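User:
Can I borrow your eye for a moment on a structure tokenisation matter? Would you put together a sequence-and-structure record for a protein of your own picking? Please set it down just below, with no commentary around it:
AI:
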Amino acid sequence: MKFCRKCGRSEASMTPKRECCIPESMYDEQSMGAPPDSNSVEAVQFARAMQWLINTAHANARNKGFWDEQRNAGEGVALLHSEASELLEALRNGNPPSTKIPGFSLAEEEAADLIIRVGDMKGFFPEGQWRIGEAVIAKVAYNAGRPHKHGKKF
């Protein structure tokens, strides 16, 4: 699958095409090479999109009453475990279609829930200190320089 380097849209979702989606700006996911540096267009767009997701997920959770009483970080981590377990169950059960979001599998739904829960963890940190998008970019770059299997035998 090919993606636009400027807006990040996949070739399949380019209807209508934007001005930036020209052949010279496309890249193939198989030939992406090394992860982008933290100042690349892709990295900045990813970090901004993640920050939007975090803010939206957390605001939605607040608006739906999940933060009416202060929660502790341990509860937040337990909820992450819960979503990961639901993802595992979806895979164990043959990954049926989602009944909540048509056109997606149950595993995709549960993985989305996991990411949404990560975003909602913002509530445990001071403003501006839950920079997950930037942390993901830094961690991918770090992992790219690690040895095979990160030096482990398993």
Notes: The longest helix spans residues 41-63.
